[in-house]
Amino acid sequence: MATFEGQAAASGSAGADEGERVTTFGEVPINSAIVDTLNYFAKIRKAITFDEVTLEDKPSDYHPSDVDLRTHVTRNISLGGCGILSAAMDTVTEGTLALALAKMGGIGIIHRNLSASEQASQVNWVRKKIHFGGMIDKPITFKSTMRVSDLESVISSYGYTFTSFPILDENNKLVGLITRDEMDFAEHRNPCLKGLYNDSLGFLEAVVEDCFH
Fold it and tell me: Are 141 and 165 in contact (CB under 8 A)?
């Protein structure tokens, strides 16, 4: 049966009252009352949930840089970030939550109410997002035949704070990029984007979905 024991530490440590015995779990100081509680539940083999635990704020001498949240899920799988694992429930974990946890160093377990191919698809989606973290997979684009007034209207309507947009031709092929500089220094009042965008940056040709038909 597992018990929670450790080496005695000096009284007056962070989070401990004067004269109170403090033990350590690994290198982490643990109040003796917590150790006794954990041992009690270990003996009666009873589990507790987060609703049954209340954390009380107290002053601490620890700095964020001193905290290590690394932990092991299995012998071969370790978490180097937040150390949080989400439940494999259809109301809890799918690709979106798994991605959010992965970005923080946690892990999300995709539930089994999906087919094997759907589970694999969600895992692949998360991996793609992590490995290509800076990629925008659905950029806001404009056709080269549109005018500056059309672009300005969309920016105002949707409240976009960025002012650089990919420009597509009639075949949805990437042909350039237009920025605020090109629009501000346009010679005519409301020119067509085709004569403004920058096409000398060596863009890779790509077919992307036009967001404004």
Answer: yes
pLDDT in tens, 101-151: 888 888 899 999 999 999 999 998 888 888 765 566 678 888 988 888 888
Rounded to whole angstroms, how far apart are CA atoms 188 and 176?
A: 20
List, in order, residues 6 or more apart from 90 with CB less than 8 Å away.
111, 113, 114
Q: Are 190 and 147 in contact (CB under 8 A)?
A: yes
Q: Are 143 and 193 in contact (CB under 8 A)?
A: yes
Burial class (CB in 10 A: 0-12, 13-18, 19+), 106: buried
36: phi then psi, degrees, rounded to nearest 5: -60, -40
Domains of the chain and CATH, by start: 1-67 (no CATH), 68-131 (no CATH), 136-213 (3.10.580.10)
Q: Give the type of residue at 111.
A: H
> E strands along 12-164, which residues?
22-25, 28-31, 71-72, 78-79, 85-86, 107-108, 142-143
* Model confidence pLDDT, tens digit, residues 12-24: 344 444 445 555 5
CA distance 29 to 2: 18
Residues facing 36 on adjacent strands: none
Q: What is the largest CA-CA distance in the chain?
A: 82
Task: Write 61-69 long-range contacts (CB < 8 A, 24+).
Answer: 61/14, 62/14, 69/105
Give pTM, 2 decimals. 0.40
Give bridge partners of residue 78 from the DSSP assignment: 72
